[in-house]
From TrEMBL:
Single GO term (MF): hydrolase activity
Gene3D superfamilies cross-referenced by the UniProt entry: alpha/beta hydrolase (3.40.50.1820)
Species, as recorded: Streptomyces lateritius
Name of the molecule in the record: Alpha/beta fold hydrolase
SUPFAM superfamilies: alpha/beta-Hydrolases
Alphabetized UniProt keyword annotations: Hydrolase
Domain AB hydrolase-1: 19-241
InterPro entries for this protein: AB_hydrolase_1, AB_hydrolase_fold, AB_hydrolase_sf
Amino acid sequence: MTGQVLPYDVQGSGSRRALVLHNWFGDRTSFDPLRAHLDKDAGTYAFLDCRGYGEAIGTEGAFTMEEVAADALAVADHLGWDAFSVIGHSMGAKAAQLMLLDAPARVRSLIGISPVSAAGFPLDGASWELFAGAAEDPGNRRVIIDTTTGGRYDDAWLGQVVERSLERSSAAAFRAYLDSWSRTDFHHRVKDNPTPVLLVVGAHDPALGAAAMEATWLRWYPNARLEVLAEAGHYAPEESPGALAEAIEAFLAG
């Protein structure tokens, strides 16, 4: 698949290069709290929007993980990066694994933040209706965000995350990406992959926490390790940005 260079911006000038892919509910601005804690002299980070999100909200596409991976590689080409790491939050980590499969000589390592595995995220009937309905119903979005952060936040915080997701994503892209990140399974293609992997999850994430990592990623990537953030749920870039930045930078330095 041929990718398209989508809107992105670069932070830092250090030698440790990383492409950063956002989650289902947020465009690249969802990383703003994290960015305030990253060492600009140690790393260079390219934050990009997926089709249908952020500054690419009007960009047409198939809205699949394969397309996200191809577009991210096109950004790397545009930057002239021969080798780099990929940081993916939730659905972004599913696309990051496809980048690894498509360009194994270029992807040095993966960092998954509450990451969706290569096997997807199976949902039962009621859960599927909740997630699929979130494309049009803000109330569904609110329930999902509240549940995956352990019911720890007030109305103002939840409302802000919901409002941003509505403003900065198209309903068509939001709905289509769900099929791709939740229902496609390519775990047989990543099994025993030796690439270094860091998994960072929140202690309050009931969906993609430590248990989910042990059942998926840690079985398939022999050089993967897990770090649990005590004060985060599913949205560590916003809930625990300082601790997440520390974990990312220590891993990339290693």
